[in-house]
Amino acid sequence: xxxxxxxxxxxxxxxxxxxxxxxxxxxxxxxxxxxxxxxxxxxxxxxxxxxxxxxxxxxxxxxxxxxxxxxxxxxxxxxxxxxxxxxxxxxxxxxxxxxxxxxxxxxxxxxxxxxxxxxxxxxxxxxxxxxxxxxxxxxxxxxxxxxxxxxxxxxxxxxxxxxxxxxxxxxxxxxxxxxxxxxxxxxxxxxxxxxxxxxxxxxxxxxxxxxxxxxxxxxxxxxxxxxxxxxxxxxxxxxxxxxxxxxxxxxxxxxxxxxxxxxxxxxxxxxxxxxxxxxxxxxxxxxxxxxxxxxxxxxxxxxxxxxxxxxxxxxxxxxxxxxxxxxxxxxxxxxxxxxxxxxxxxxxxxxxxxxxxxxxxxxxxxxxxxxxxxxxxxxxxxxxxxxxxxxxxxxxxxxxxxxxxxxxxxxxxxxxxxxxxxxxxxxxxxxxxxxxxxxxxxxxxxxxxxxxxxxxxxxxxxxxxxxxxxxxxxxxxxxxxxxxxxxxxxxxxxxxxxxxxxxxxxxxxxxxxxxxxxxxxxxxxxxxxxxxxxxxxxxxxxxxxxxxxxxxxxxxxxxxxxxxxxxxxxxxxxxxxxxxxxxxxxxxxxxxxxxxxxxxxx
Length: 602
Description:
It is a single chain. The chain has helices at about 15-25, 30-45, 50-55, 60-110, 115-120, 120-165, 165-215, 215-220, 225-275, 285-325, 330-335, 405-410, 430-435, 450-455, 465-475, 480, 500-515, 530-545, 580-585, 590-600; strands at about 360-370, 380-390, 390-395, 420-425, 425, 435-440, 520-525, 550-555, 565-570, 575-580. By secondary structure, the chain is of the alpha/beta class. The protein folds into 2 domains: about 15-335, ABC transporter type 1, transmembrane domain (ABC transporter transmembrane region fold); about 360-600, 3-Layer(aba) Sandwich (Rossmann fold). The strands form 2 sheets. A 6-stranded mixed sheet has the order 6-7-8-3-9-10. The relative contact order is 0.09. Residues about 1-15 and about 340-355 have low confidence and may be disordered.
């Protein structure tokens, strides 16, 4: 993984716009073609006021009138063709780029480290990832349909005015510079208010997601009214920010209207009439001046509208992007291949497409670890052990002493602060550790998908139905699945809510069978089950770990009967190690824990 983890910091270096520029550079041919067609069409359309004015004053010259009428029609048809070419290019080639951008965003979020997901509300991250495509698409539309036609038209307007009423060009020049300065000042509060609104809207979206995702807790505590009340309070704050953002936008529109309807119109009309009255310009020049002013006003409104849209969606886009990827240009990283993991090699060798193997043993050597937000406090301190292929190692300790943290490191979620993990004597990084292991957690959370999808999730690629059914049979869940109405096509509900804990655990075991990894990691996989279900699952586990290196975290020490060795962790250190019988006979922490559980005190 490259780049910093996800944080909630503000975007430090305007990399969101850099990402858009990188996207444009990578697809410059199609974007350029669509832009050229649109600009050329706009330039032809800008000629219409002049052609119309010339036609209108040609009443005494039918040939001249016919010539300008033909030109008006021809430029209209050419405008139609070029504009349509631009539309078809946008529909076929440009619009899909926003989905390409979202694809890059989605992949880049999943390229973040584990701790980035721990630190971030998943609902807010999901909200930003889902919304960012529409913001990018809207920004393109604003630039392509708003700013580009106006910029292309300005050249024609200047040429026409210079030819017919050259001094009027100065009025437009002063107006454009003045309006740009004033509108730029007006959009700053709009931008700020919109970013605040975007952030709080995403917070509320994440909160709503979290509320519904935890519906079991809500119903268990009859907390529906509390959830509604909390959402109402959050919406009250959102409404205040909505009003502030709306007022900033209203001021923007009002002042933009005064600029064009009062200042520009009064200046152009008064000065053009003054010139005509003094004989400085002809009547055709007066007509051209007024028709250009009307057409310019339409273009101006288009730009003002799209500038408002741009500011609104740019603020939302920058807030989302800066929240997800502070200081990074993920598009440039993606196309340059910089997002590929740096841990995809083993001991410095080139990565292989074959699954890595444990042929002899896995060794943890002098491992130390502190969480990034508390670098001065070691959760694990100089932990060392080894487990050979075919051996089963139990890990025991009181709650909060570092067992689960050790498992997260073995799963590749975190890098050790110090020390190393070796496979057959060679150091491995998080990526290979993740490929080496099959994991059965204490509480299996499933996707809201079918039974087959959830079992097959562990497979590299798409497993066959036969492979899924074979894994289910080995996990002793095939009979249950066959009894379901849709069998393997049955949806399991939110996080697997339609299944019992034991059934979810057996799906996790089926996944482990399907993955065929050399390291099996069990994190208190049977601690919350009844005795009968635990016995069935233990039977499946014995088959699963028969030829693997197995690491078992156990809270109920009676479940460690089948392990070969046990290490006891206390305060992040290994304080005891050895076979279960030896540790029970010693007067150490394991014996103390054993006696407490036997007496029913733990």
